[in-house]
Design goal:
Blueprint (H helix, E strand, L loop, with lengths): L1 H24 L3 E8 L2 E7 L4 H22 L3
Antiparallel strand pairs: 1-2
């Protein structure tokens, strides 16, 4: 049970890092990640463009798809 909780925590952390790295890839800033029992929150400062907001929002789910593909064979 403890190992499962650790994997869940790690996957939520990677999801939030996905948002952060996506924000930085469109010249935004992401300096803070908050993790709590109900999930996580990445605080991002973005340029005022629809593309920057889309890329940042899609960064977290893209990490989830990558994690799913990696963990599928296991």
């Amino acid at each position: 049970m403890l190992a499962l909780m650790g994997l869940l925590f790690f996957s939520v952390l990677l999801h939030e890092f996905g948002h952060c790295f996506a924000a930085r890839s469109v010249d935004g800033e992401a300096n803070e990640v908050l993790l709590w029992p109900l999930g996580g929150l990445a605080k991002c400062e973005l340029p005022h463009s629809a593309w920057a907001h889309f890329v940042t929002a899609a960064g977290g789910p893209a990490v989830n798809v990558l994690l799913c593909g990696i963990s599928g064979p296991f």
